[in-house]
Amino acid sequence: MTENTPATGTAWLDPADDAPELTEELADVAEISIGGKVIRPATGYLGPNGVVKGRPPLRDRAKQQVTLRIDPDVLAKFREGGPGWQGRINAALRVAVGF
Fold first, then answer.
1. Are 92 and 84 in contact (CB under 8 A)?
2. Which among 1, 16, 41, 96 is least surrounded, fewest beta carbons within 10 Å?
3. Within a 13 Å sphere around the CA of 37, how many CA atoms are in the beta-carbon half?
4. What does the pLDDT look like over 30-80, one tens digit per residue?
5. How far apart are CA 30 and CA 20, in angstroms?
C-alpha cells in the first residue's frame, strides 16, 4: 500500500489580492453593468499611474502601420538598444529623408 503524503506546491492566492483598490476616482470612470447589461459605459481608462480621463490624445498625424523588409544585421543593431527600437528606426528614417 502507498503512504499518504501531504500535498506539495504553493498555497492558493486570491486573485483579488492583486486588484487595485477601488477609489472614488476609479468608481467615477468605471463601467457599471448589471446582468451583462451596461447601465453606464466607462468614461476613462487605467493608465500606468492610475485613472486617466478619456482616450489618450492622438498626435497631429496618426502613425501608419506598414510591412517593411530590413536586413537582419540592421534590425539586430536597432534591437540591441532594447525597447523602443521601432521608434529609433522611425527617427533614423526621418533623418534620412531630411526631417
1. no
2. 1
3. 3
4. 888 999 899 998 887 777 666 676 666 666 677 888 999 999 999 999 999
5. 13
Q: Are 54 and 44 in contact (CB under 8 A)?
A: yes
Question: What total of structural domains would you count in the chain?
Answer: 2
**pTM score of the predicted model:** 0.42
Cell, residue 57: 490624445
Q: Are residues 71 and 37 in the same domain?
A: no
Range of the domain at 62: 58-99
Considering the domain boundaries, does residue 35 fall inside one? yes
In sequence order, which residues have a C-beta less than 8 Å from that of residue 63 and are 6 or more positions away? Answer: 90
Angle at 83 between CA 81 and CA 86, to 5 degrees: 90
